[in-house]
Amino acid sequence: MSQLLPVVGPDNPANSLITILRAKVKDQHLTYEFTEQRGEDAPPRSFSLTCAEQVHPDLLHAVARLVPHLCLLTEQLDETPDFWPSDDEELSPCFASFTVTGLAMGKNQGGVTLVGQRELTGGRVLNLITPYQSFDEGQNSYPYAGLPEATLATVPAEVEAALRGKCTDYRQLTLFEPAATALVPVLPVSSMA
User: Fold this and answer.
1) 45 has pLDDT over 80
2) Is residue 144 packed enough to be buried (19+ CB in 10 Å), middle (13-18) or exposed (0-12)?
């Protein structure tokens, strides 16, 4: 990632145009594909990166807001009165076994495919992939066509922020507790002659 920092890093955010194509969160680490342009007339360059740092909680929160859409689009759950949480609320307990693990943006950011998982009662995992969901309300039958686009607005922004250095503060823990340094008295030893 050090080679990209002069182009897309925190010191040069205004000189590049970033377009997020795919993002995946696994084990608190982000893998994503994006294109970068140094200017509007420059050709886009494609990159794929995996962050060594753990993702920021803001990104996890933004991705978690997609879980209700994953459940509806894959016909896993039916809508209930407490189905749609506000931005500051936690997800309903009915979503406890679901997670969104990634997304793929459509051409020109015109739609999305969500990838997720459902943990089954036996501890096994069911992988879920939604059909492509266009943001154009005239091209689909999903009754909440505008909602994924509004919810998704924060995810690419958070992925780009991760690209520019926003991540969880990493602190290496010590292996051993620091021991108090006590002075050990030195006793004279007599020589045996």
Assistant:
1) yes
2) middle
Which residue has tokens 């420059």? 42
The dihedral sign for the CA sequence 134, 138, 142, 148: positive
The backbone torsions φ and ψ at residue 140, rounded to the nearest 5 degrees and listed phi first, read -145, 170
Q: Please state the length of the chain.
A: 193
Residue 24 binned pLDDT confidence (cut-offs 50, 70, 90): very high
> Tokens in use for 110?
């015109």
Per residue, the 3-state secondary structure of 120-169, as one string, reads CCCCCEEEEECCCEECCHHHCCCCCCHHHHHHHCHHHHHHHHHHCCCCCC
Q: Are 151 and 69 in contact (CB under 8 A)?
A: yes
Domain-wise residue ranges, the chain: 5-163
Amino acid identity of residue 66, one-letter, is L
pTM above 0.85, yes or no: no
> CA 81 to CA 75: how far, in whole Å?
17
